[in-house]
Amino acid sequence: MKAEDVSRRRNGSLEVDILVSPRSNRSGPEGYDQWRRRMIVRVKAPPLDGRANKEVEELFREITGMPSQVTSGHLNRQKTVTVSGDPDRILSILDGVNVG
Q1: Are 70 and 53 within 8 A, CB to CB?
Q2: Domain 3-96 - what CATH class?
Q3: Which residue of 28, 50, 51, 100 has the fewest C-beta atoms within 10 A of its own C-beta?
Q4: What is the rounded distance in angstroms from the CA atom of residue 98 to the CA atom of residue 10?
């Protein structure tokens, strides 16, 4: 499974469907949930007061170097992150990240 399988191109951005695992011992991409068609992302922050969402946004910003925002699923483990920028470039970066 690749990043293209869990994302959608939008005008000037890429929407990535993720499954967040909060309160982990490390942060970062952990692979793919093929059944849910989502990228698994671990974060250290607890799911309180939007802290896990903020860490997800910071993580995608660090990985891609582009502005990122949780755009749906704010209160769920299943979320959508919108990364602003060229979708092809973002996909290339995400596919190059060591997942898992």
Answers
A1: yes
A2: alpha beta
A3: 100
A4: 25
